[in-house]
């Protein structure tokens, strides 16, 4: 039957079907042409000289991503780190943080000693967030902050590479000085327990590093200040580490809208009271607890004395009785009583119940450098 012999309604229907079919075919061909190579690599930013990455798009979670921020450390692949840590052998573990294990390793080809932190899967929400945080932390440089040398991502694994500091963590030096784990040999000329001069230097160093985080660019809240996150070099200079919980702050704000976190014994009371944002004053409180821990040699997560007081309550009671010397750890040499009194006073100011009563870390640095 000729098309002209069909009635007008049928002609209109056939014309509409033909038009729809033609449009569908055109769109289908265009889609295939645009996606003919789904695995083609995206162009890199040729002006980006800070990161030396091995992939073009760090958001592609199926490809490995690595970056080095130190010229002495080459790009490190997952096979390199597997070899350097003996396949993440338990015998290589030198630390167990809240967000992953830390391993001793030597990076080829020069055998540079490093600490490799293998983050737990829940340490960051996504690869884009992780990459952004690593770029931020790579720009944070201060003598009292552990430098991020490099990182590597492969599948679900996210690994951070830091310098290996020979004296290990402050926690180990304070509470378990004879257990050197699998760290490098310590300088055995340093007496145990730590002298007062060494303790004062450590406290001042941590204060300087934390003040830099709070007042630098970008401003950062650490969120997990504790003795296990303070590392010591061969001269017992302190460096803050473990930025797995650290968060950047908007310059116009004093908090970050993120779930609060931290370690029992160091967390401020407002976090237990349901505060849903992390603040700089939370870090100040944790620093105050750390100060009392360093002076007294007592763990903040354990009750103190016959009455089972918290560390801060115990220190405040002895200070009211003018018994500051009884707070100091037994056997500490080289005590300077005026400094001891001032360090305890500053530590107690930092653990005030309400955040507005606590000093800023900049004020803390000044008070520790100029004891009254």
Automatic annotation (TrEMBL):
Q: Which GO terms describe its cellular component?
A: plasma membrane
Classify the source by domain of life: Eukaryota
UniProt keyword list: ATP-binding, Glycoprotein, Kinase, Leucine-rich repeat, Membrane, Nucleotide-binding, Receptor, Repeat, Serine/threonine-protein kinase, Signal, Transferase, Transmembrane, Transmembrane helix
Q: Where in the cell is it found?
A: Membrane
Which residue ranges does the record assign to the Protein kinase domain?
88-372
| InterPro entries found in the cross-reference section | Kinase-like_dom_sf, LRR_Rcpt-Like_S/T_Kinase, Prot_kinase_dom, Protein_kinase_ATP_BS, Ser-Thr/Tyr_kinase_cat_dom, Ser/Thr_kinase_AS
Task: Identify a single GO molecular function assigned to this protein.
Answer: ATP binding
Membrane spanning residue stretches: 12-34
Where is ATP annotated to bind?
117
Q: How does it sit in the membrane?
A: Single-pass type I membrane protein
Choose any GO biological process term that the UniProt entry carries and state it.
Answer: signal transduction
Entry similarity comment: Belongs to the protein kinase superfamily.
Name of the molecule in the record: Protein kinase domain-containing protein
């Amino acid at each position: 039957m000729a098309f002209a012999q069909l009635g007008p309604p049928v002609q209109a229907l056939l014309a509409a079907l033909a038009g729809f079919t033609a449009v569908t075919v055109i769109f289908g061909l265009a889609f295939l042409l645009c996606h003919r190579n789904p695995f083609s690599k995206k162009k890199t930013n040729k002006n980006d000289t800070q990161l030396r990455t091995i992939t073009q798009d760090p958001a592609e979670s199926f490809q490995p991503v690595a970056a080095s921020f130190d010229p002495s450390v080459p790009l490190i692949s997952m096979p390199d780190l597997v070899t350097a840590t003996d396949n993440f052998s338990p015998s290589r573990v030198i630390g167990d943080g809240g967000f992953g294990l830390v391993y001793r390793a030597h990076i080829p080809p020069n055998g540079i000693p490093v600490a490799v932190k293998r983050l737990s899967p829940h340490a960051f929400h996504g690869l884009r967030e992780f990459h952004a945080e690593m770029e931020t932390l790579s720009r944070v440089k201060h003598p009292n902050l552990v430098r991020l040398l490099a990182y590597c991502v492969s599948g679900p694994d996210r690994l951070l590479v830091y310098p290996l500091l020979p004296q290990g963590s402050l926690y180990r030096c304070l509470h378990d000085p004879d257990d050197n784990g699998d760290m490098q040999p310590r300088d055995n000329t340093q007496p145990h327990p730590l002298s007062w001069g060494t303790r004062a230097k450590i406290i001042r160093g941590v204060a300087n590093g934390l003040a830099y985080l709070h007042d630098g660019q970008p401003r950062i809240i650490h969120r997990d200040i504790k003795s296990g996150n303070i590392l010591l070099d061969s001269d017992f200079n302190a460096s803050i580490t473990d930025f797995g919980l650290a968060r950047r702050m908007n310059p116009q704000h004093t908090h970050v809208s993120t779930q609060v976190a931290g370690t029992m014994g160091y967390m401020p009371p407002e976090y237990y009271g349901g505060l849903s944002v992390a603040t700089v004053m939370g870090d100040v409180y944790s620093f105050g607890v750390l100060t009392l821990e360093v002076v007294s040699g007592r763990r903040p997560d354990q009750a103190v004395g016959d009455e089972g007081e918290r560390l801060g309550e115990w220190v405040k009671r002895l200070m009211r009785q003018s018994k500051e010397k009884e707070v100091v750890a037994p056997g500490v040499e080289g005590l300077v009583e005026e400094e001891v009194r001032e360090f305890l006073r500053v530590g107690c100011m930092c653990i005030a119940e309400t955040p507005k009563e606590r000093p800023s870390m900049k004020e803390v640095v000044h008070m520790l450098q100029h004891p009254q």
